[in-house]
Design goal:
421 residues; mainly beta; Neuraminidase; seven-stranded antiparallel β-sheet; five-stranded antiparallel β-sheet; 2 helices; 24 strands; 2% helix; disordered N terminus
């Protein structure tokens, strides 16, 4: 049964009144105990409370990897966090085909010059509605909110949960959902929900009903949540209230299998119209064993989560992929890779004559993103939003116009957004 928390976030009134953001806030766990193995020493070294945003505008479309990651390594079933890890050079693949996006007639916001965030969008993009971003800070177990058109971030929910990692928004119901990893050695992960103003924080998936929940996506029309479970080695879904919990895929079982990080499910995406869900199995830190997979939303007749035969491997041999989103209309996958500190894309389908292991059509959109974790697509505006240690950034779908919206932000994980009139 769901339980309501007595803590409340900022009381801003109606959910769509998230426009007056004024505080600067602090530091971020897939950075986890394992992915959120951002150590307490890393958290302590992160700048507290003053989320000073600066600008970095750099384009990196189809560039070669090779940046060095300085984020956490992803050690062990225990709950301790590593203080640092170094990911070696890793060459990026060649540029993939260009994704299409809805015409918007306007440009993205300009880079920041005043230590806060970039200016708002102009022209047709402004007609798409006002964009509010929500992201997670593991350092203080916080849900953050940011006006994407300018202004500093603000704490929306503070001290609720343990190891927040993935976040999703339901604009119609005015609610946020976020996963909490708990202690990976204890099988005590859980999922929380709140109103968009941060009030009424409620546990919808109880501790122990999911092992180590990671990135999460929502199918609003079907009323379903989807998430990866790292130490649980599963992909799961439930109703929006946490009921009817289902295991869609069991990758492996047992302690020995749990120690093999190629079995760890993290990022997820869902294509309801096409009838697919997608997920990442990340592999060891910068180990070149990460993969992106998909299966049908409808279980094959006579099969179950352990025996299903419809699983496709779309990409393998990746450094250490984490979060995932999909542009179905353009046929493109977008993901973060903590191993080589990059934001990436590639066509969904394996090219003719190639395999998941031999394809070389990965395009690096942004490199040098320390502990790259969260990714979210704002397709109407043609933008990719991403997080890493200390940064919230935005880049065009094709890799142009990389802009830092917030810097010195803490240890960040999941990100999502919502447009409102």
């Amino acid at each position: 049964m769901a339980r309501a928390s007595c803590r409340r976030g900022l009381s801003w009134g109606a959910p769509l009144a998230l426009l007056a953001l004024s505080l600067a806030c602090s530091p971020d766990k897939d950075a986890t105990p394992n992915d959120s193995e951002q150590s307490s020493s890393l958290a302590a070294s992160s700048t507290s409370a003053s989320s000073q945003a600066t600008t970095a505008a750099s384009s990196s479309a189809g560039s070669v990897g090779g940046s060095t990651a300085t984020g956490s390594s992803d050690e062990g079933a225990g709950g301790s966090r590593a203080t640092s890890a170094t990911a070696g050079d890793s060459a990026g693949g060649s540029g993939g085909s260009r994704a299409t996006s809805a015409a918007n007639g306007g440009s993205g916001g300009a880079p920041a010059t005043d230590g806060t965030s970039g200016s708002g969008a102009t022209g047709g993009e402004a007609n798409l509605g006002h964009l509010t971003l929500y992201y997670l800070d593991v350092t203080e177990d916080q849900v953050m909110v940011l006006d994407a058109e300018g202004g500093p971030p603000e704490v929306l929910v503070e001290g609720e949960g343990e190891g927040p990692d993935g976040i999703a928004v339901d604009p119609e119901a005015g609610q946020l959902y976020w996963t909490n990893m708990g202690n990976p050695a204890e099988d005590d992960g859980f999922i929380l929900r709140s109103n968009l103003d941060g009030s009424d924080v409620t546990t919808i998936v109880e501790p122990g009903d999911t092992f180590t929940p990671k990135q999460i996506k929502i199918d609003v029309d079907a009323g379903k949540l989807y998430w990866g479970d790292r130490e649980g080695m599963q992909v799961l879904r439930s109703n929006l209230d946490g009921s009817e919990l289902e295991v869609l895929v069991t990758i492996a079982e047992g302690e020995a299998a749990r120690a093999d990080r190629t079995n760890h499910a993290v990022g997820v995406a869902v294509d309801p119209s096409g009838g697919y869900f997608y997920w990442i199995q990340k592999g060891p830190p910068n180990g070149g064993e990460g993969s992106i997979r998909r299966a049908r939303l409808e279980m094959p007749t006579g099969e179950d989560d352990r025996t299903r035969t419809d699983i496709e491997v779309l990409y393998s041999g990746l450094p250490e992929p984490i979060d995932l989103d999909v542009d179905v209309d353009a046929g493109m996958l977008y993901w973060t890779d903590r191993g080589d500190a990059t934001i990436n894309r590639a066509p969904i389908e394996v090219p003719d004559g190639q395999s998941a292991a031999t394809r070389q059509d990965r395009q690096i959109l942004v490199d040098g993103v320390d502990t790259a974790i969260g990714v979210w697509l704002d397709l109407p505006a043609g933008h990719v939003y991403y997080t890493g240690t200390d940064v919230v950034g935005r880049v065009d779908l094709d890799g142009d116009n990389d802009t830092v919206l917030v810097r010195n932000a803490g240890v960040l994980t999941g990100i999502t957004g919502m447009r409102a009139p």
